[in-house]
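From the shared-data thread, chain only:
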Amino acid sequence: MATGKDMKEKILRAALKLFRKKGYLGTSMTDIAVEVGLTKGGIYHYIAKKEDLLRELHDEMISAVVSRMNRMVEPEPDPGTKLENWIRSHASIMHDYLDEIRVFFTEMEHLDKANFRRMIQRRDAVHRTLSDIVAEGIQSGEFRKGIDPDIAAYLILGTLNWYYQWYRPNGDFSIEEIANMTIQIICHGIRTENTTHTE
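Structure, as tokens:
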């Protein structure tokens, strides 16, 4: 018999599936209840309202981003390696949380003002971390001068976040191969000519 925690996770997965298929506005709590074998009244034992599911899916994805960045990026001593690991980490998140990310970008506007603001703050914190890495690289001489760290961070994140539009797990290239191509393009463009780099 499923525990309350197990059922809550089952409801989250069902909501994700339906939000992807029908959109947030097109999905009702009844739809989600039917998907997991609950009555309309029964689902409210586990979740108060539909927006809570959207918020929890967004929280789950952003928490995974922060956790993986902290594990793969922060321990590295030099900004160039940090940037490469950032790209690999971000690409792996796009692979592992592809449906959550699609819902994040297409349905985020349906959060209430307080939760929307909180998500923007968490997203901005990720941007600042990447901007700081670029600034560190410019200061150390590893990255080119004349690059604005904030603009560079927006460009890098824009490239990586757009994966969700075209990346397919069963496509011709693995996520690791795509990450390596991205590293070649971004890191070759930002590094100074005399800086060693990963091939």
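The radius of gyration is 20 Å.
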